[in-house]
Amino acid sequence: MAEIRLEGVAHSYDGGKTYALNPISMTWEDGKAYALLGPSGCGKTTLLNIISGLLKPSEGKVFIDGKDVTDVITDDRNIAQVFQFPVLYDTMSVRKNLEFPLKNRKVPREKIAERVKEIAELLGIEDDLDSKPSKLRSDLQQIVSLGRGLVREDVSAILFDEPLTVIDQNFKWTLRNRLKRLHLATGVTVVYVTHDQTEALTFADEVLVMDKGSLVQAGTSESLFLEPQHEFVGYFIGSPGMNFLDVEASASELTHNGKPIGKAAKAGLNGRHRFGVRPEFLIPSSEAGMEFNVDRIEDRGVFKLIHLSKDDFKFIAKTEESYEAKVGGKATFSFDPKRAFVYDLNQKFVSTVSPSSQGGN
């Protein structure tokens, strides 16, 4: 098992003109499961390849269990990596593909057979062991590739680079649960790259949200949802994401186009800011709150998404299934002040909103 520590790790592909990965310093604890979550091009795969040794960082150092491995080749880092698309030997059967990493390390024949059987059962490919990879569907090929990454028991860490991209949507749930069970049983350190928030939030002990080459927030699923410290986290985590509104702060009083929105809990706040509240924390109200036009209603069976507009802005509220409203009508909503946030123009959190300070109609 491994503790992975990064000190000022950054990377540029063009000699320092631009950076695909901005400086990151952090420690990933031995035995935990981490997810790197973000959109395509945010730097998460670059970071993963630096950890594995496929890429040497332009700046900074990588430590595994306290040892500086920045200049150590991939083979000597004792790390397994599973890529987004299948990496298999088509001249070999599925069985031999799974055996290959173990034979390379001179694992006893009986142990190899036992381990291959165990991994095949875990992944549900027992009936495909004697087939050639080219004869399998693309999602099964990726499952076999996943098996190659899991088959070694002596690795310090396993790195997954969007491993479930080509897997059937229904089977993803099953496979993700099996991977989580394997992690809990082995205690191996896992780093999992994905752009899918469901994969990240359900698999990892801690999720690291990345955007434009930077780590913007790290935390548990709960903390990222309830306490987004960056606008991007509010937008990217959640379905739908956070509602945002441009506001002007004057002595912490928040207004939009001169109309009161609320008061920031932080004293002395002035200037342009952004107000944010998740759809889940817009609360139907018969009294205090803001009156909106109801533009559209999405009935999702167990909840409703109410599309609202007021003056020049739009919000979405997530309500219980029993909530009743009419398209073209009016609806009044307040917000949970503990879950309403103020961000600066750098998209960073600066304040919550004071209770009982909400603007009216």
From TrEMBL:
Alphabetized, the UniProt keywords read: ATP-binding, Cell membrane, Membrane, Nucleotide-binding, Transport
Classification via InterPro entries: AAA+_ATPase (IPR003593), ABC_transporter-like_ATP-bd (IPR003439), ABC_transpr_FbpC (IPR015853), ABC_transpr_MalK/UgpC-like (IPR047641), Mo/tungstate-bd_C_term_dom (IPR008995), NA-bd_OB-fold (IPR012340), P-loop_NTPase (IPR027417)
Instruction: Report the protein name in the record.
Output: Unannotated protein
The UniProt entry, under Gene3D superfamilies, shows: 2.40.50.100, Nucleic acid-binding proteins, P-loop containing nucleotide triphosphate hydrolases
Name the CDD domains on file.
ABC_Carb_Solutes_like (cd03259)
Supply the source organism's classification: unclassified sequences, metagenomes, ecological metagenomes
A Pfam match: ABC_tran
All copies of domain ABC transporter, residue ranges = 4-237
State any GO CC term: ATP-binding cassette (ABC) transporter complex, substrate-binding subunit-containing
Q: Which organism is it from?
A: freshwater metagenome
Q: Which GO terms describe its molecular function?
A: ABC-type ferric iron transporter activity; ATP binding; ATP hydrolysis activity
